[in-house]
């Protein structure tokens, strides 16, 4: 496995990070204590198209940038790592555990999404308090679930049209 990032890798990862940013920053749905967004959907799609490492970088960078420009600066570092962890978990399921299964990415998205919800809840306890963290829990679950559902639809359309494999970079992890 080639560990170097090529110009193509950097370009594709940058475009995916920009799309994560746009889906997070511009498609905000107000929720108590913050907002819900569709950035997770783009992270799941990024892992499918770019592989684990590039998808994790795109997710972390795009989410951190949305927090930085959106006034949520205290979330920049947690978002970078939590979104990257979610993508790595999804990638592990997709390219290691269920690598020969058409919908093998879906369990990874669910597990990665659950870990994301857990980590954001844990992070909010020292930032705010337990009550706030628990109040935001349903919104975080809704955000992640919506991201999985929309990603499943988009991935299914891309697969059915034959574009999924055409858009994928060669190295998947």
What this model shows, in words?
The chain has 173 residues and is mainly alpha-helical. It has one domain: Orthogonal Bundle (Arp2/3 complex 21 kDa subunit ARPC3), CATH 1.10.1760. It has seven helices and two strands. It has helices at 7-25, 39-50, 52-70, 76-97, 105-127, 130-160, 163-167; strands at 29-31, 34-36. The protein has a two-stranded antiparallel sheet. The mean pLDDT is 91.
Return the CATH topology: Arp2/3 complex 21 kDa subunit ARPC3
Q: H/E element string?
A: HEEHHHHHH
Rounded mean pLDDT score = 91
| Beta-strand proportion | under 5%
Number of strands: 2
Strand line-up of the largest beta sheet: 1-2
Query: Approximately how much helix is present in the residues?
Result: over 70%
From the spread of the alpha carbons, the general shape counts as: globular
Q: How far apart, in Å, are the first and last alpha carbons?
A: 9 Å
Q: What's the CATH architecture name?
A: Orthogonal Bundle
Largest sheet: 2 strands, antiparallel
Poorly predicted residue ranges? none
CATH class category name? Mainly Alpha
Radius of gyration: 15 Å
> What oligomeric state do the depicted chains represent?
single chain
Secondary structural class: mainly alpha
